[in-house]
Design brief:
This is LSM domain protein. InterPro entries: LSM_dom_sf, LSMD1_Sm, Sm_dom_euk/arc, snRNP_SmB/NAA38-like. Pfam families: LSM. It is built from one helix and six strands; from the N terminus they run αββββββ. By secondary structure, the protein is mainly beta. A six-stranded antiparallel sheet has the order 4-5-3-2-1-6, with no helix packed on it. A hairpin with a 5-residue loop joins β2 and β3.
Amino acid sequence: MSNPAPTTQSPDQSIAYLDSLLNKTLHLHTSDGRVFVGQMKCTDNELNIILSMTYEYRRSVAGGGVVGSTTLENLAGNAVGEGGAMKKRFVGLVVVPGRFVERIDVEE
């Protein structure tokens, strides 16, 4: 599932790596526990990532907050796991600020 980026690379290698991710499905894990799953369309100089056809997954609790981290196994079909049910909603085209992204998985 994961396609790690090389740690030391030239600008040309970085561009080639980003080009290889275009139109691929990414799983962006954010610092608030949400996961955005959508097709990568572009990024910008501020490290924001633009996804299309995106679904947002979050773990809900009785109080209406978000708790815990999500696992990819729980993303399919609002599965119930530790900490409550996974809530899924379609959000379409989104810009995810890079400063909130903790992990990126590439669906192959």
